Amino acid sequence: MSRKSSTSLTEGVPSTTKAVLPPYEEPNSPPVKLDLEKPPLGVEEPDKNVKLKYPKSVFFIVVNEFCERFNFYGMRTVLTLYMKQILDFSEDKATVLYHSFLMLSYFTPIPGAILADTYLGKFKTIAILSCIYAFGSIMLAVAAIPNFLPQTGFSMTGLLIIAIGTGGIKPCVSAFGGDQFVRPQQDRQLEAFFSVFYFSVNAGSLISTFITPILREDVHCFGDDTCYPLAFGVPAILMIVSIVIFVAGKPLYTIKKPEGNIMGEFFKCIGHAINRRFKSKGEKRDHWLDFASDKFDKQLIQDVKRVLAVAFVFIPLPVFWALYDQQGSRWTFQAMRMNGDLGGFVLKPDQMQIINPLLILLMVPLFEAVIYPCFKKSGLLTPLRRIGCGLVFCGLSFVISGFLEIALEPTYATIPADGRMQLNFINTLPCQVNVTYRVTDKNGDLSIKANEYEFVQDLEADQDIFASAFLENADCGGYLQFNGGFSTGEVRLGKGGGTKGYSILITERENELTITRLNNEEQLDKYYTGDPSVAFFVDDNTFQEYAGLNIRMRQETKKKTYQYIYVLNDTAATTPEVEYIVQTEYQNTEIGTYELFYNETHVGKLENLIQGGVYRVVIQKALNESDSYHVMTVEVTPPNSVNILWLLPQYFVVTVGEVMFSVAGLTFSYSQAPTSMKSVMQSIWLLVNAFGNSIDIIVIQFQSDMSQADEFFLFAGIMGIAVIVFTAMSWNYKYVEDEKKENDNEKKRLSAASNHKTDSSSSSSSSDEEDETKKGEKNKAFSE
Length: 784
Known about the structure:
Elements: H1 2-8, H2 57-85, H3 91-107, H4 109-120, H5 122-143, H6 151-178, H7 187-217, H8 228-248, H9 262-279, H10 298-313, H11 318-324, H12 330-336, H13 355-376, H14 383-408, E1 420-427, E2 433-439, E3 442-448, E4 453-460, E5 464-470, E6 475-476, E7 480-481, E8 491-495, E9 500-509, E10 512-518, E11 533-539, E12 549-556, E13 561-568, E14 574-575, E15 581-583, E16 587-588, E17 592-598, E18 601-609, E19 614-621, E20 629-637, H15 648-672, H16 678-702, H17 708-730, H18 736-767, H19 769-774, H20 777-783
Parallel strand pairs: 1-9, 11-19
Antiparallel strand pairs: 1-4, 2-3, 2-5, 5-8, 6-7, 9-10, 10-14, 11-15, 11-16, 12-13, 12-17, 17-18, 19-20
Helix pairs in contact: 2-3, 2-6, 2-7, 2-8, 3-6, 3-16, 4-5, 4-6, 5-6, 5-8, 7-8, 11-14, 11-16, 11-17, 13-15, 14-15, 14-17, 15-16
C-alpha cells in the first residue's frame, strides 16, 4: 500500500526535515443515495428545538395496516384447506401452489419499491395497488361460491392478483408512515409509531388467524358443510375498509415526490461491471466490481461490494423459510390428522397457526431482556451466531414433526391401491365365529370373537370372493341355538372393485348361520373437514320398506343440541341376497356421545365419536325374538387419536429459531449495509424468503413416493447441510464495526510512527551537528 511504502523511505535515514505521510484517504465522491430527509426547495428546515405535535395522519396508516394484515393472514390461514377440500387438489399440489403464492408475494416488493420511489410516489402506489389487491380478494371470495364461477381458474387468478398487490405495497406502507414525521425532532415519536405499527400487524394476523377458521367450518352456506366464501369474504371487506380509511387521510398526509431509486443504480453498477469485465480482456482489477469505475462513483462501488459481501453470507438462509413457511401447509395438514378436542373447546387445524405469533410476542421480550444479556459479555451470541442457532432450532422442529408423523401413521386411512380391495368381516353374533376366505391370490382363516370384526387388506379386485363361516357348536353364547345349521359352507360373495372396501355381515336367518356381502362400498377416507363420519346397518327381520322409519342421533351440550336423522326407505343390495338388511349413507357429525333412537325407540348410546373417525354402526334386533336391540360400532377408519397439543413442541422450537434468526437477520442486514444501500439490503432479505418458498416447490415436486415423515426428515437434513455451509461461509466474515476499528487502529499506528520518526530525526540533527557538517555535500543535499 502507498502508506507503507512512503513510510519505508524514511526508515533509518537521518534528516532535519519532518517526514510527511500521505493523508488517510476518505472517499472523494459522495455515495449515490436518496436524500429523503432533505426538505423540498423553498421550505425552511424546522428548528431542532421546536417540539412538534404527533401527526394525526399516522392513525389512518396504522388502521389501514391492521385491516390489510387481517385480510392477508386470514385468507392465508385457510388457503391450503380450501385448495384440498373445495378445489379437490392433493396435499402435494395444494402445498406447491401455496408456496408459489408466497414466493410471488415476496418477489413483488422489489418492483413495488421501484414504482413508488421512481414513478408514482408512495401514496399513489399504495392506493392503486391496494385497489388491485382488494379486487383479487373479492375475486377469490366469489370464486369460492359453489356452482357460480369456474372455481379453480378464478381462484388462481385471484391469488395471483393478491400476490402482486400485497407484495407491491409491502415496502411502502411503513416507509410512508415514517414520512409523516419530521426528523430529528420527532425521532422518539417515530420509534413509538413503529412499535404501534408492528402491534397492528400482529393484532391483525392474530385475530384473523383465529376467526377465519371459525367462519370456514362453523358456518354452513350455499348447501355446503363449510363456508369458504365467508372465510374469504370477511377479510376482503376489511381490505376495502382499509382503502377507504387510507384515502380518507390524504388531506393530513405529508406526501413526498419520487426522487429516484438506489436499487436501479445498484443493479446498473453490477451489470456494467460484468459487461466491462468480459469486454476488457487482459485488464486486471483488484475486484471485478472495479470495472464499473469508469461510469460509477467510487463510493457507490464500495457500497455495492459491501452489500454483495452480506448477500454472500445469505446464500444458505432461504432454507430457513423453506421450513418455516410450512406451518401454513404441511403442518396444517398434519394438524388435520390430529384430535383437536380440548374438552369444552375444539381447536381447528388451521387455528394452530396462531401459536407462532403468540409465542413470538412472549419470547422476543424474554430473549432481549434475559437470554441475550447473559451471553453478551462472553460474546458468544454474535448476530451471525444467532442466525446459525436459529437455523439449528428450525431444523430440530422438523425432526420433531417427523417423529410425530410416525406416531400418526397408525391412524391413517388405509386406501387400497389400484386393482386391490379390502374386506371387513363383521360378526354380529354373541359367540365366536370361524371364517375361511379365498380371493384368487390370497386366502386365510379368521377367528372373530363375539360382536367384533376383522379387516383383510390388499386383496385382488374384480375377482370372485369366496368365504365360509362356521361355529364350534350349535349353542351361540347361551343366547341363541342353531338347529344344525351352524355352518354356511363356501359361499360366493361376488366381486369387489379396485381401491374400495366392503363389509361382510355374519348374522342369522331362521336359526341358520348366514354370511353376505353388502354390494355398496364403504367410505374409507376421512371426511375432509376432520369431523367424524357415521353410517348405519340395520339388521331387523321385522323391517318394512317405505314405512317412514328412521334412526336419530341426539347429543345435548350446554351450548347446543346436535341431532342427525337417517331415513330408512329400502333394504340394501347384498350378495348372496339376504332380506331385512338396511345400509345408510354416511353423514359427518360433531364429536361426542350420542343417544340412539330407532323408530323413536331408544336403543342405546354411540360412545365417544372422535375427529377423523369413520364409523359403521350396526343396530340389530334381538335374534332371540325379544323386543330389545343390540348396538355394535365398527371403526372402518381409526379416528385421530393423537391430541393436537402434541404439535406444541415443534411450534415452540421453530419459534425459538425464528426469534433468533429473523430478528438477528434483520438487524444484521440493516447494520452491515452502507447508509445508501439500506433499502437494497432489506429487499434482498425479502428475496431470501421468496427463494425459500421456491425450495419447497422443487422438493415437493420431485419427491413422489416418500412418506410424510420421511419428507420432514429430508427437510431437516437439508437444513443440516445449510447450517454447515452457512458456518463455513460466515466463519471469516468481518463486521463493519470491526473493519472500522481496524482502520482506526491503522490510522493511529501510522500517526504514531510518523511522530516517532519526526522526533528521532530532530534528536539526531541536534546531537550530531558537528559530524553532519563534515559529511560533505551529497548527504547535505539529501537532508535538504
